[in-house]
Amino acid sequence: MPRPIQATIHADALAHNLARLRGAVPDAKVWAVVKANAYGHGIERVFGALRAADGFALLDLAEAERVRALGWRGPILLLEGVFEPRDLELCSRLQLWHVVHCEQQIDWLAAHKTHAPHRVFLKMNSGMNRLGFPPHSLRTAWARLDALPQVDEISLATHFSDADGPRGIAHQVQAFTAATRDLPGERSLSNSAAVLRHAQGDTTVRADWVRPGIAVYGSAPDFPEHDIAHWGLRPTMTLASRVIGVQALQAGDTVGYGSSFTAEAPMRVGIVACGYADGYPRHCGTGTPVLVDGQRTRLVGRVSMDMVAVDLTPLPAAGFGSEAVLWGRAATGTVLPVDEVARAAGTVSYELLCALAPRVPVVVDGAD
User: Fold this and answer.
1) Residue 84 to residues 32, 89, 107, 130, 297: CA-CA distances in angstroms?
2) pTM of the model
């Protein structure tokens, strides 16, 4: 029989989260962000649950081709735009909208031969200092694009650096509003954190399009200040396995490589078929939460390539064959948010979801 580890994608949770985000900004259109293979969930697996979105936003052309192959005829946005001139040919053929964030991309458009003009999103660097035109040169870039026959409609976009934290977004909203004042075109500003924390009472922030990413996939964008229950989100991926061995320890016995955990009293340890080769973070240490038969317990010792050890001492009924949920939703309905596991690993949920290993079988439940 196959190894017992499995990832489950919850289509009902994906649809719920999308609806929750749309409900937060009911007068805005919603991009479902499916970059990084839908945050590790798989574009083909999430498409049915997310097709209620107004468009799909992603990074590369191969992913755009996959979305079109699934039958999507609505907008698709390339969030980083094109990476070389010939990419524009595929944008024309697939009718892709694309971000323009630098002069080189405008040069490529000016040299591009196309019968159908392109819809572009001119990106402004309002303070994050990754991609985009600085405020003082945005209008010049807009004028260049507006003069091109290769360009149809110009929308305007920026990205927030601190929507999830105490600094907030006011400084970036102010910069964007000042630089784009009186320019025509739709606007897109808000990521997941901005949608949930800032956009509901501010028409400028929610604008015409919002771009929720991580919240669609059942993670709180401002964890640990708020968790998914606070925002009314549901986990969309469960990584689960089973206990494949049980060890009885005495005081002084150690567990795993490096003997990093020492039992202080007699205890039972369950060995779970999951390790860093499955995408479970190696930096999770003793104390990381795990669900066994729907009850919370803890990891003990180091994460190995193929196995982790969990404390069964407080769970006398658990043993060989017990369900072990590394993150997500147990068969009992108990939830272990991926955010908590990510915090124990010193990282963010994005990394855990995107790092699911190819060797882990994936199934979809809750689909129509």
Assistant:
1) 25, 10, 11, 19, 50
2) 0.96
- Give the number of C-alpha atoms closer than 13 A to the C-alpha of residue 331, restricted to the C-beta side: 8
Which residue in 39, 113, 257, 350 is the catalytic one?
257
Cα separation, 35 vs 48, in Å, equals 16
What whole-number distance in Å separates Cα of residue 76 and Cα of residue 35? 11
User: Which position has the token pair 């567990």?
Assistant: 255
Q: How many CA atoms lie within 13 A of 211 on its CB side?
A: 21
Concatenate the DSSP letters of all residues of 72-107 into one string: --S-EEETT--SSTTHHHHHHHHT-EEEE-SHHHHH
How many other CB atoms are found less than 10 A from the CB of residue 238? Answer: 25
- Note the pLDDT of residue 367: 58
Q: Phi/psi of residue 113, each to 5°?
A: -100, 115
**Element of type H or E holding 121:** strand 118-123
Please tell me which residue in 35, 39, 276, 350 is annotated as part of the active site.
35
Contact 189, 176 (CB under 8 A): yes
The whole-angstrom separation of Cα 134 and Cα 138 is 6
How far apart CA 177 and CA 273 sit, in angstroms, is 52
At 336, phi and psi to the nearest 5? Answer: -115, 100
The angle formed by the CA atoms of residues 224, 226 and 229, to the nearest 5 degrees, is 120
Helix (H) or strand (E) holding 291: strand 289-292
pLDDT (mean) for 178-193: 97
Active site residue 257: yes
pLDDT number for residue 344: 97
pLDDT in tens, 82-98: 999 999 999 999 999 99
Which domains, from first to last, does the chain contain?
11-219 (3.20.20.10), 237-365 (2.40.37.10)
Is residue 35 part of the annotated active site? The answer reads yes
